[in-house]
């Protein structure tokens, strides 16, 4: 019988003892549709593992608490739940970013202090059994995450000094923050940029200075973070959605077909084992950078402007690699 079922039985036993019903093994076995032996095992667990002050009252023919102030531990978990929590913690540190490691560890410590149960998981042992390799990510000040989080909730304008990598320069602007998005460990902010009079996406690790302003903004009711992210390829959205078709060789076909690259994707299988990946997406620069990593094993079929962009990039690469 599962540990989850045992926890449910213990909670029911506790509820009836606390309610002054003086339950016993016979009553609880009938109510919970288990054997008396199972109920006795549950009672022993409560006494010897949870410290429950259970005694038998002969007059009432059932159990009661000698200490009415005793309560069940605030959290009881199974081994699987503890393992799942550990794994999620490790993944979070690598994929959400090390900038949150300190508050994450503090949360783990608090949870560990209130967890009591029949099982435990040694995190040192788990470290020897599981390995995680996360992407490299830009460090983000924890304070900017919290400040922007509050600004989004309260709809407050934010002033910031931001570094634009494409221009290699800092600029100052006021933004209306809408949504925080984590992609491959990096934190991004989707916001309305008053400098450009349009929505933009900002890499939060490039925010040098910021200040949450008292002025508020009216949120655009038509804006949808899900639509913005859903229309994007990997990251950059908010642009015109275009039909894209990319051919992949037989060598790379299995790698492509076994993964979800975009919500709109459709795969056209070819007789020779190759395939064509169709999708409707924005962010052609991202698509270009992605497809070029496959070298000669991939070819953009449409749109023509994406083919031209790939040709230009390949020509620049050939210029770099040409020999005398």
Taken together, the total number of domains comes to 4
Computed CA radius of gyration, to the nearest angstrom: 29 Å
Main beta-sheet strand count, sense and barrel state: 5 strands, antiparallel
Which stretches are low in confidence, meaning pLDDT under 50 for 5 or more residues running? Answer: none
Task: Report the span from N to C terminus.
Answer: 75 Å
pLDDT averaged residue by residue: 84
Strand proportion: 15-25%
Helix-and-strand structural type: alpha+beta
CATH architecture annotation of the largest domain: 2-Layer Sandwich
Level of helix content?
A: 40-55%
CATH fold label of the largest domain? Alpha-Beta Plaits
The rough form would be described as elongated
Tally of individual helices: 11
User: What order do the strands of the largest sheet run in, or round the barrel if closed?
Assistant: 6-5-4-3-7
């Amino acid at each position: 019988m599962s540990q989850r079922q045992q926890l449910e039985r213990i909670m029911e036993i506790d509820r009836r003892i606390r309610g002054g019903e003086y339950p016993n093994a016979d009553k609880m076995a009938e109510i919970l549709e288990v054997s008396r032996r199972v109920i006795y095992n549950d009672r022993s667990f409560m006494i010897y593992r949870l410290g429950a002050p259970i005694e038998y009252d002969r007059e009432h023919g059932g159990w009661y608490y000698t200490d009415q102030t005793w309560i069940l531990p605030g959290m009881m978990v199974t081994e699987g739940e503890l393992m799942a929590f550990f794994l999620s913690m490790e993944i979070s540190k690598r994929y959400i970013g090390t900038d949150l490691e300190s508050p994450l560890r503090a949360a783990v410590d608090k949870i560990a202090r209130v967890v009591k149960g029949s099982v435990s998981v040694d995190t040192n042992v788990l470290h020897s059994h599981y390995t995680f390799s996360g992407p490299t990510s830009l460090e983000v000040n924890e304070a900017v995450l919290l400040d922007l989080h509050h600004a989004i909730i309260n709809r407050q304008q934010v002033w910031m000094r931001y570094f634009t990598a494409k221009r290699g320069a800092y600029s100052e602007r006021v933004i209306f923050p809408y949504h925080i998005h984590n992609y491959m460990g990096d934190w991004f902010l989707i916001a309305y940029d008053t400098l450009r009079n349009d929505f933009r996406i900002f890499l939060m690790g490039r925010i040098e200075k910021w200040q949450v302003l008292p002025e508020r903004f009216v949120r655009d009711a038509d804006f949808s973070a899900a639509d913005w992210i859903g229309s994007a390829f990997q990251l950059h959205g908010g642009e015109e959605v275009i039909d894209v078709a990319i051919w992949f060789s037989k060598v790379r076909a299995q790698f492509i077909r076994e993964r979800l690259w975009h919500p709109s994707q459709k795969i056209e299988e070819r007789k020779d084992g190759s395939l064509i990946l169709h999708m409707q997406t924005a962010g052609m620069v991202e698509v270009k950078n992605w497809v070029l990593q496959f070298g000669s094993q991939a070819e953009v079929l449409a749109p023509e402007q994406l083919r031209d962009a790939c040709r230009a990039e390949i020509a620049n690469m050939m210029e770099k690699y040409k020999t005398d």
